[in-house]
Input
Amino acid sequence: MVATIVIAVITCLGLVLCVLIKPEIGIKKITLPLYPFIALVGAIAAVAFTPLTLKDCLDGILGAGAVNPLKILTLFISVTAISIFLDEGGFFEYLACKVLKKSGKSKVKLFIFLYITVSVLTVFTSNDVIILTFTPIILYFCKSGNIKPAPYLVAEFAAANTWSMALIIGNPTNVYIATAAGIDFLSYLEVMIVPTLAAGIVSLLILLLLFRKSLKEPILLPDHDISSPMKDKPLCILGLIVLIICTVGLAISGYIGIEMWLECAICAIVLIISALLLCLVRHKKPVVVGHALGRIPYQLIPFVISMFIIVLSLDKMEITRYIAEAFSFNELIEYGVGSYLASNLVNNIPMSVLFSSVINAGNASRYAVYATVIGSNLGALLSPVGALAGIMFSSITKKAGYKFSNLDFIMYGASVSVCSLAASLGCLALMLMI
Output
């Protein structure tokens, strides 16, 4: 048992240090994230130095149960691929520029329009893709208009990691936690829509209060046009059609007897094949398809599977059962606040793997599952360690030459996330009472 705990703790500490000190490593012209390698080393150590065997790992990874990391990864990567395809076609950039132009000289309008746009897009796509797309556009626009970017960057990040709770596909943690608990698309939406609305409204009000002074000044519009036409309109239309079909398919998957991961995988494959055929008919190189396939977060595959193996070792020694027994006072508070804090100790993806196992070991209620989802999303706002979105956000701002320190991140993030967490868990508690 001691070896299992030591390996898990060292792996988690390694992940935190990696995120804070050196999240990436450069090999010639290739930049690779370090966190999957740290998780992989931890998984190898778990197999080598604990009672966990290779057979246990294979049975867990390839098992027919709900907690199948390969199915969960397939679901998330398929939806992410569709979102990245739209991004490569220029759809998100086009919308961002429209929003910036529509706001005119009013910083308040710009702030609210940006928050709403990011919120809506995050619900139906992926918070990680939205962060990757909107952050550099915000930095560019603010530099051109001599505007302090902090309010808009914080609004973007808060919106992306608050409204990502609404649908099961908004965040990889939603996918993992809900799928592991056997919750389908509509059952998830039925419960999570109210806590998400509460958290979203509270976060917007807190943000307006935080930045009320800086939003009073008018915008000095840049001399040049900030419009950005879609790079490939036909492919964007194709991508939107497939995204709509995928979302509707997820909603009815429980009624037609098709698993969510399979439906998403089919949609992603159909999109790629259709896009290739469309490019062939138009005598155009499939640049968008190639770039989209290249940007898929493949590093999540070894990362999630490795963390799953470490949790399997904790499971085998019944450590997750001991944690579940400790959560015996109030499920909503313990799982909600616990997942919120734990996300910032180990990142919200490994936290989701661990908490899913704890929920299962303790036979916790469905409301504990939803509380964990809330904590995993809002935990991303507290520090850069909380989520992959935070790592990407910090990397983009740093490369752009804008100083947004970890302390700034924590100060703004804590102000928004603590109030949003209280509002969303409060709504969940009321729904439980009703």
In short: Residues 68-433 form one domain. The two ends are 42 Å apart (CA to CA).
